Amino acid sequence: MNPLLTFNGIDIATGGYATAPMEIDRFVTIVKAQQDPQNINELKGRQRFLAGRDFAPIEGVDPKDLSQAGWGVIYTHQPNPAIQAALKPLLDLRRTQASAQKAIRYQEYFGPDRGYRVGADTKSDWLERNGAGGGGAADPDQMPYYLMIVGSPTEIPFTFQYQLDVQYAVGRLYFGESPDEYARYAEAVVAAETGGLALAKRAVFFGVSVEGDAATTLSANELTAPLADQMTLDQPQWSVEKVIGEPATKSRLASLMGGDDSPALLFTASHGAMLNPDNPLQKIAQGALLTQDWPGPGKSPRPMPEAFYFSGQDIPTKNKLAGQIAFHFACFGGGTPAQDDYVEEGTAAPKTLAPNPFIAHLPQRMLSNGALATVGHIDRAWAYSFKTETGASQVKVFKSAMKRLMEGHPVGSAMEYFNNRYAELSSDISAQIRAAKFGTAVDPYDLSFRWQCASDARNYAVNGDPAVRLFVTADPAKIQRPAPRETIVVQPPDAPASSTTPAGAVAFGPLDFLKSNPDPGTSTLQQIIERLTTKLSETIDSVTTLEVLTYTASDLSAIRFDSSGISGAHLRAVTRIGINGNTINCMPEKDGQIDTSLWQVHADMVAKASSTRSEMLKLAASATASLASSFKIV
Amino acid sequence: MTPLETSLARIEHITIAATPAGAVDYALLDDLRDSWSQWQTRLDAALNTLAEQLLAYAVVRTPSIAVTVISWTGDVQTVWSAGITADLARIHQQELTRATTARANLLRVLLASTKLLAAITVAYANPLYTAGAVKAAWTLLQELETTLA
Fold it and tell me: Which of A32, A213, A530, B4 is the most buried (most CB within 10 A)?
């Protein structure tokens, strides 16, 4: 028996699976072709370390206390000063918290000596240059345990983040180069931690389960439902709600992600949307969450309607997400690397997933509208990673992370269970593949299972500050939410601070060039339309007569048609109608008489041709008139 | 509905959504502009192919009965099998009707596409509509490429 593996992820251009189901034997050949992670020795070290004790950081440090654990921010060697300035309120807060016992426990890494040297640094280079080489558990007196990367994954790669995350609690903040959203995020975190935010102790577990789709059926039955059940038992002070199957619609998700029913803690499990790298919508929609509205594989229109998935564009701008932490089990829910993480045996290079690596738009929009952090998957998520080798449900890593979040741990600390799982499994896999190369029989099911689990555990990444936590209360009288934010008017980066733009108006700022100098893309579009319009106009102008020719032939297969006309047939009748209505008819003859039956056939063709011409010219004239006027309003 | 009619209906229902006021993501707009140039050649190619199909001669064959070459403006050359009867001629004329209807629908698709493109071009220059414009253009491209496949 060679069962099929079904993968998470739907291509919204086709509505079908992004990765076709694969026989397990083929998948195992792929796993065997993988290289050891660069930090395999460190992972093995962590596994040995974990055998003796529980968690990073070093013994005696409470990860819930920033004055013990420390906090730092990592920029590139050439950070954007506007972004640094926008984050100042958050950095001031973290400095106060982390340096309460020792100043060294708050750090800002930037500039040529301390920042991440884009295109040059490895994790080891960077740690050694900043006095924390040598590996092992995080020592906050060498380097803070909580580290927030500020930069794109093009500048500071995902691999750096994964590897650093093995020792430290790492998150990433990236909204592009405009400082506005960084400022809003900083403001939201500071408001949550100093403004008395207190949300109800309420967690929602949202699981899509579509009939005929193995991936969502599995995740709903084997992950979301048991996880919610276990958290209900484990956290009696919390209200735990399951939204699984039929109720897991886009409208319900909208109510939970920025709507009136937004909970403090949200867990979602569904397919993530995937698009081809040349699709310009990839940065908007990749990692969007498919909802129960999706009818299932093979049943979706092409392209998939937006009604089937929840993307960053569905996040409202009012900050009802304030204080929320969300965990998304979905392909690309956190971001997308430029190249696929796994390489098929015999292929020269991994598959290109995107022109450049990027953070998913959904978490970016959540963080800029009040959410404190999201956990999402970089690259694809594996549908079987929450099961054991024997097929039983195995959710203890997820449960441990949820438990820590519910008990007030910072999100980076809660994610340590995934890092431990990654370390443990990577060490096992490395040993198994090595053994297989020397002829030892390896159980393909066990190997593929471990590889999926390791890939999953590694690729969950925190978007946001890894030191944020839930601010909740069990006392309904003490629940306090910030007032809904009024419509935010985005100030362009170079707009004067005092300038304001009325709500609903457009603040052009740096985009003014679009009005005076159309973008090259716009110009090209205009050229396309003008060319088509010209072509249609010329064709209409050249039409001065309608001509209908009727031939007969004894062998239709012998006739030829080229630019000079038809050969191999006898011309029998002609009708030419001039633009002024003048008509010339040449009628067919048979035995010295008019061939009336053929003439009737010819006359029918003339009527049809006249009707066709009339309709086409009407449409073409309408088209050219409409197109010619289109650009007058630009 | 024929595939062309379906395609036309879909194109006519493509809308350009506005980003909610205040939620303009300038970094995303930069990203969209980067990708804009990557796919506009495909849009150009699709529309060109559509125009060429429209302006080219269509050949309608009804085996053993007739072959007709028809231009998009209605000029017709037909070779009938010798001894054609009125009943057989009607069969071919029905084929011809289908072909000319398809041609008209092709023109309607081109018209709807170019009208939409004009609206996209205007919307693209407004940050509130840039993301919606790119999305609409992409949906249009997908529809055209499916139609032409």
Answer: A213
State the Cα–Cα distance between residues B40 and A613, nearest whole angstrom: 32
Q: Which two tokens stand for residue A476?
A: 């309904």
Q: Name the percent of chain A lying above pLDDT 90.
A: 40
| Nearest-angstrom CA–CA distance, B123 and B125 | 5
Q: What is the DSSP letter of B19?
A: P
* Nearest CA-CA partner of B128 in B16, B33, B7, B11: B16
Partners of A593 in the beta sheet?
A590
Identify the weakest region by mean pLDDT among A88-92, A489-493, B25-29, B137-141.
Answer: A489-493
Indicate which of B15, B59, B101, B138 best probes the interface with A, i.e. most A CBs within 10 Å of its own CB: B138
Computed from CA positions of residues A29, A31, A37, A42, in that sequence, does the dihedral angle turn out positive or negative? negative
Number of H helices, E strands in chain A: 21, 28
The residue among A286, A371, A393 whose CA lies nearest residue A334 is A286
CB of A574 within 8 Å of a chain B CB? The answer is no
Question: Is the pLDDT score of B118 beyond 70?
Answer: yes
pLDDT tier at A290, thresholds 50, 70, 90: very high
**Exposed, middle or buried: residue A369 (CB in 10 Å: 0-12, 13-18, 19+)?**
buried
Of B20, B32, B73, the CB nearest to A613: B73
Contact A490 B23 (CB under 8 A): yes
Put simply, the answer to whether B134 touches A281 (Cβ < 8 Å) is yes
**pLDDT tens digits for A414-435?**
998 888 777 777 766 777 777 7
Cβ atoms of residues A224 and A205 within 8 Å: yes
Give the DSSP letter string of B61-99: EETTTEEEEE-TT--EEEEEETT--HHHHHHHHHHHHHH
**CA A426 from centre of chain:** 26
Q: Do A364 and B25 touch (CB under 8 A)?
A: yes
pLDDT band with cut points at 50, 70 and 90 for residue A265: very high
Burial class (CB in 10 A: 0-12, 13-18, 19+), A609: buried
pLDDT band (50, 70, 90) for residue A188: very high
Please list every residue in chain B whose beta carbon sits closer than 8 Å to the beta carbon of residue A303. 139, 142
Judging contacts by C-beta atoms under 8 Å, the chain B residues touching residue A620 are: 107
**pTM, rounded to two decimals:** 0.66
Task: Give the model's confidence band at B129: pLDDT under 50 very low, under 70 low, under 90 confident, else very high.
Answer: confident
Q: For the beta carbon of residue A313, count every other beta carbon within 10 angstroms.
A: 21
Residue A496's pLDDT band, with cuts at 50, 70 and 90, is: very low
C-alpha to C-alpha distance for B59 and B53, rounded to whole angstroms: 12
